[in-house]
User: Which sequence fits this backbone?
């Protein structure tokens, strides 16, 4: 079994997190704290046309898929 260099893994993780962070900032832009938005991961919408993700001061939490992301 081959193992990747830890330096390469760390650089890849940083790059992926920066990409996710920029996408989330664009997705949440203009939303207020406590407002429900569409989850950028699962895109769940209930039968009553309500979104599952809630905007908090420091991130978003989706109650359908359970993802929590800091912004």
Assistant:
């Amino acid at each position: 079994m081959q193992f990747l260099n830890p330096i390469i893994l760390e650089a890849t993780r940083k790059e992926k997190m920066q990409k996710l962070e920029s996408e989330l900032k664009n997705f949440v832009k203009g939303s207020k704290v406590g407002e429900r938005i569409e989850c950028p991961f699962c895109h769940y919408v209930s039968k009553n046309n309500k979104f599952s993700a809630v905007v908090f001061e420091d991130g978003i939490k989706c109650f359908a898929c359970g993802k929590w992301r800091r912004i």
Summary: The chain has a mean pLDDT of 83.
